[in-house]
Amino acid sequence: MLKKLSKKFIDEQREKLLKGRKKLEERLSFFAKKSDKVKGDWLTVYPTFDGGGLEEEADEVEEYGNLLSVAYNLELELKK
Question: Does the first or last residue of the chain, that is N or C, have fewer Cβ atoms within 10 Å of its Cβ?
Answer without folding.
Answer: N
